[in-house]
Amino acid sequence: MAFGLGQDMGLDLGTATILVYVAGRGIVVREPSMLAIDRGTGEVIAIGEKARQMLGRTPGNIVALRPLKDRVIADFDSTEKIIRYFIERVQGASIWKRSRMVICTPAQITGVEERAVRQAALQAGARQVFMIEEPIAAALGAGLDISAPQASMVMDIGGGTTDVAVLSLGGIVCSASLKVAGDKMDEAIIRYVRREHNPVIGEKTGEELKKTIGTAHPSCRWQSSMEVRGRDVVSGLPRTVKISAPEVFEALQEPLQQIVGAIREVLEKTPPELSADLVDKGMVLTGGGSLLAGIDTLLAEETGLPVYIAEDPVSCVALGTGKALAMMDILAKRARVDQNRP
Q: Among 128, 166, 194, 339, which residue is least crowded by beta carbons within 10 Å?
């Protein structure tokens, strides 16, 4: 299970949520990837859920922020502090308990971005860091057999990125990574409410609208509505407005069509033999974005493929990193090969 005195760990370093998998224990941490810091001193005030509760409510000297944007490190020091916090939370602060760690990355991450993630984890206390592509981790976590000479298709809709991939024989045949996912959906809803009703609403309210009455297809939640409170653009005073599900549906059209476009791009690049497999096997959805009502129906209509939502879509990537912990030797060999490439 563990190597030395540290515990092997899998890390789903998401834009919106961080999940930590520990070998032999399962998922032990599931918290927002957010921290609150004092602007003047740089002191960390809160991390995770406590920091999320401060979003939009902090005084001028304290800022609540997400150090990861589109699964890429936007603030290196803050990312290191978050990773260190969760490592120490799992196994204490002893320097002798340095873990081996598997971290998932977007399918089309650049070498610079990957090195930034690896360096942040090493400086936070990891002993060795191995990387695994997000679609592979998602497929493993969803229980797909990607080692067979048959096509498996998975789409992970996270907070910052949507990754689509066709897998076969344990690797990615073709893929697309799109910086349009849950956060962009929230932003689209916020813009719509401001444009059509005048109130300015915050990130948390936009996300709540998406989760409560948001829909990707008219067959779901069409009669639902929800009251939200915000600041009126004209008067500057607090105001309450009622938003309907059809309005949220309209607001979500742009990001949803971009996601559909990414799927079509991957399907167009898929070899004919593997395309034939997908007619029967279809596509599996993972990530928090797959919980948007009606998204499976929409994608089935747009692609003509069967579309299934994984049993625990939010945890799939973290569970996949957990399964990858049993493949440490393979990951180490692949890392050596990558390092020796010119």
A: 339
Distance CA 140, CA 144 (A): 6
Beta strands in 143-252 (DSSP E): 152-157, 162-168, 171-178, 199-200, 225-232, 238-244
- Could you tell me the fold of the domain covering 144-309? Nucleotidyltransferase; domain 5 (3.30.420)
Q: What is the pLDDT of residues 20-69, one digit of tens each?
A: 999 888 999 999 888 888 888 888 899 888 888 887 777 778 888 888 77
Q: How do residues 123-168 score in pLDDT, each as one tens digit? A: 888 888 888 888 999 999 999 988 889 999 999 999 888 999 999 9
Which residues make up the CATH 3.30.420.40 domain(s) of the chain?
9-136+317-340, 144-309
Share of the chain above pLDDT 90, in %: 51
Output the average pLDDT for the chain: 87
Q: Measuring CA to CA, which residue among 35, 82, 85, 83 is closest to residue 63?
A: 35
In CATH, which superfamily holds the domain spanning 9-136+317-340?
ATPase, nucleotide binding domain (3.30.420.40)
